[in-house]
Amino acid sequence: MSLRFIKFMRSKEGGEFGLTGTCRTNSGVAQQLIDLKKLDDKDVISWGETYSVTTEDGLVCQVGFKDNAFVLFMSTVWDGGPKVSRERKRPKESSSKAKTSRIPFGDLPKKVLQIPMIVDRYNYQIGAVDQFDHLTANNPGIRPIRRGGHQALEHWLLRTVLINSYLLALHASPNQPTKVRFRSQVEFRRRICDRIFAMTTSHTNPNFARRIAHMDPLAMAPLHNHQNIKMASRAQCCNCKGGRISDRPLKRSALAEIAANHNRESISHYTFYICTICKVRLCNYKTSGRRCWDIWHQID
After folding, report:
1. Which of 10, 23, 259, 282 has its CA at a distance of 20 to 30 angstroms from the CA of residue 236?
2. Which helix (DSSP H) or strand (DSSP E) does residue 295 occupy?
3. Structure confidence at residue 9 as a pLDDT band (50, 70, 90)
4. How far apart are CA 180 and CA 188, in angstroms?
5. CB atoms < 10 A from the CB of 64, how many?
6. Is residue 172 a contact partner of residue 179, using CB atoms and an 8 Å limit?
């Protein structure tokens, strides 16, 4: 995080946001803190030493804190004054800064120590940013942008909307008439695509979502053609095993199958009923009380 960026976010043009984060020596930090950072290469600064420098306009506070190493911070919210008690672990003897960082602990493997509030807030409230970066890295959805800053910003906003929608759907209220059902972010995005394609098709039921690509033509039949009839023998319900109509034509690898069925019901139910179009066994609601027919056909 650079000084120029954090000042812009503090201004009215940037939205007047409060920011706290680490920074490098080439990010516009005060020369005094840069010199202390270089001095710490010799491990001569005691653990817990805190240095604060405020910019001339008084908008940004730059803080240097000696933990296992000398770390630089910038913040428009906190300075280096307020402190909070936290239990810390004693660094290993092989640590490059063990000479000074192990002294406050003595013979104790853990000890409650005073650390600046800015460091504590950064360490314990950065989880949401890390989760967003993790979900973005695993599901980029687009190819890298080589040129055009506006395209990069546009795609970043799109990813932000998709990830926030996914997280909100995970915490949907269980009291809703129809509970949102999906097994991963990939399936969540696939269902969004299904709905978009379904809006452009001429199905009699507007909620009859289908994936256009890689779909069995028989499964594209109108919903009223799908009938659940009783057979003489019973077999396992495909929905109870974790299947969906959009998954049926595709073959998944072993690892993908494990990830896709994570946290799903492991009990497989047997049923006498079969869908005449899909040719798969599905539980009947009247006899079992399970909504496998609606879930399989993605009816909301």
Report:
1. 259
2. helix 292-296
3. confident
4. 9
5. 24
6. yes
